[in-house]
Specification:
Elements: H1 5-39, H2 54-84, H3 89-106, H4 130-150
């Protein structure tokens, strides 16, 4: 069975959701680990850490642990998606290459963007169906027409 474009775009959207969900989860885990570790450290309030109050540094370290967890999330989500959709992996990779070629060929030149005429979805990240892809193409053409009218 071959992967059609609508199915590919649905799987692409599902992969983004896996990545987002795992980022939220790993951020929570990272924050929890940071709090668990830092809560057991003794604080000498008379000493500074890098010239800052220890409580502020511990708070920043906890936020840093959450941020590190957030950054690890897409790797975990990608691995989970690959395990869940193992039979489609090669076809998804092939369609992804083909899709990115279409995006690169049809997207606008961002060097002409301005506040009044921003680039519409340069990477095609919001495309989730063939209908949205057609709308993306229309937006790219409209941007080019608007740019040419102002030149």
């Amino acid at each position: 069975e071959t992967l059609d474009w609508d199915s590919f775009l649905k799987l692409r959207r599902l992969r983004r959701r896996y990545n987002l969900a795992s980022s939220i989860f790993t951020s929570f885990v990272g924050t929890s680990i940071g709090i668990g570790y830092l809560a057991n450290k003794e604080i000498d309030v008379t000493q500074t850490i890098l010239g800052m109050d220890p409580l502020i540094m511990f708070g920043l370290a906890t936020v840093g642990c959450g941020a590190a967890g957030w950054l690890v999330g897409p790797s975990v989500g990608g691995a989970a998606f690959n395990i869940a959709k193992k039979r489609w992996i090669s076809q998804i990779a092939e369609r992804e290459r083909e899709f990115l070629k279409h995006i690169q060929k049809n997207r606008v030149d961002p060097s002409f963007q301005s506040f009044s005429n921003p680039v519409p979805d340069y990477y095609g990240e919001k495309i989730g169906s063939v209908k949205q892809y057609r709308q993306w193409l229309k937006d790219q053409r409209a941007y080019n027409k608007k740019r040419e009218a102002f030149l």
